[in-house]
């Protein structure tokens, strides 16, 4: 028999449950998700358990972060399967709000961060990060956790959330979770299910190319040469490339020439209709 798990669907219910834990002196971690859970999400649950005594996972496919031609309607949804996985993972409470609960009639507030969101994925997906920043701000204020855990696969998103928390003085610690990969290197993503069999065989090349770029940078090659070579390799394998970029890991500022400190090699590209993103850390070798 499948394990059951407590669920709530309103802010009032969520806050009531969290208040009980607070009264008992317990700490709370939040793991926000859009459902269609995989091992990457579950790794974030494991991280959360190391930081708090009670774990809340949220499931909400946020319409505000999808563009008009994006995959909101067909985004994978499996509430029953997700609840079973979260129960098995030891989550204490699942928050599954309806859209009207998150965006009631008359909702008019948006959280924007132009400096961090105007390029990379922000250039390809206008208003995406505005939607992300707004919904995450709401989730953090609704749950009021001590800790919230976000994966590094969506690296630009992670930095956006850190900036929001800093700027708005939201009392929560943002903890990153390392990218979880398939054996062939493909970063886990709910959207990987969109890939055809042939595309799935090709998809790991994105990680291979970014890893090669990171190694070249560590060995002293310049950013422009590395990113140009990476784009050329991906296009040669059938990817439609949005970007291959080398960025400062704290500010996302573009880096030029040979790197002098830590950097992040970031890439986004389409295979067919599926958009894949990935990133790899690097730093110059001591010479």
Description of the structure:
With 287 residues, this protein is α/β, with parallel strands linked by helices. It has 2 domains: 7-177, HUPs (Rossmann fold, 3-Layer(aba) Sandwich); 190-282, Pantoate-beta-alanine ligase, C-terminal domain (Pantoate--beta-alanine Ligase, Chain: A,domain 2, 2-Layer Sandwich). The chain contains 11 helices and 9 strands. The chain has helices at residues 11-23, 39-49, 79-89, 99-102, 114-117, 121-124, 128-143, 155-167, 197-202, 205-218, 223-236, and strands spanning 7-8, 28-33, 54-59, 93-95, 147-151, 173-177, 240-247, 263-271, 274-282. It has a 6-stranded parallel sheet, sandwiched between helices. Helix 7 (128-143) crosses helix 8. The protein is globular and about 55 Å long. The termini are far apart. The model has no long low-confidence stretch (mean pLDDT 96).
Categorize the overall geometry: globular
What's the CATH architecture of the largest domain? 3-Layer(aba) Sandwich
Catalogue the unreliable spans: none
Enumerate the strands of the largest sheet in spatial order, edge to edge or round the barrel: 1-4-3-2-5-6
Helix content: 25-40%
Assigned CATH class of the largest domain? Alpha Beta
| SS strand fraction | 15-25%
Number of DSSP helical runs: 11
**Overall mean pLDDT score?**
96
Distance between the termini: 59 Å
> Total strand count, please?
9
Radius of gyration: 19 Å
Succession of helices and strands? EHEHEHEHHHHEHEHHHEEE
CATH fold-level assignment of the largest domain: Rossmann fold
How is the biggest beta sheet arranged?
A: 6 strands, parallel
How many structural domains are formed by the residues?
Answer: 2
Superfamily (CATH H level) name of the largest domain: HUPs
Q: Please state the structural category.
A: alpha/beta
């Amino acid at each position: 028999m499948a394990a059951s798990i407590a669920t709530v669907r309103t802010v009032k219910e969520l806050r009531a449950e969290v208040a009980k834990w607070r009264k008992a002196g317990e700490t709370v971690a939040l793991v926000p998700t859009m459902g269609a859970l995989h091992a990457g999400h579950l790794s974030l649950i494991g991280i959360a358990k190391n930081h708090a005594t009670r774990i809340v996972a949220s499931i909400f496919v946020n319409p505000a972060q999808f563009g008009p031609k994006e995959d909101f309607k067909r985004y994978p949804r499996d509430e029953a399967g997700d609840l079973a996985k979260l129960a098995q993972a030891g989550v204490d409470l699942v928050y599954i709000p309806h859209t009207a609960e998150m965006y009631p009639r008359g909702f008019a507030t948006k959280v924007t961060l132009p400096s961090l969101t105007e390029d990379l994925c922000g250039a390809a997906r206008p208003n995406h990060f505005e939607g992300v920043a707004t919904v995450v701000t709401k989730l953090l204020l609704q749950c009021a956790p001590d800790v919230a855990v976000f994966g590094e696969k969506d690296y630009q998103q992670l930095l956006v959330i850190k900036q929001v928390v800093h700027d708005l003085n939201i009392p929560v610690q943002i903890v990153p979770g390392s990218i979880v990969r398939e054996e062939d290197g493909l970063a886990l993503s709910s959207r990987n299910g969109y890939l055809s069999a042939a595309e799935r065989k090709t998809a790991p090349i994105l990680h291979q190319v970014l890893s090669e770029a990171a190694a070249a940078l560590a060995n002293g090659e310049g950013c422009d040469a590395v990113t140009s070579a990476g784009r050329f390799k991906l296009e040669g394998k059938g990817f439609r490339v949005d970007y291959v970029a080398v960025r400062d890991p704290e500010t996302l500022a573009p880096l030029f020439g040979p790197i002098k400190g830590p950097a992040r090699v970031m890439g986004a590209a389409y295979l067919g209709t599926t958009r894949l993103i990935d990133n790899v850390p690097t730093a110059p070798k001591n010479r």
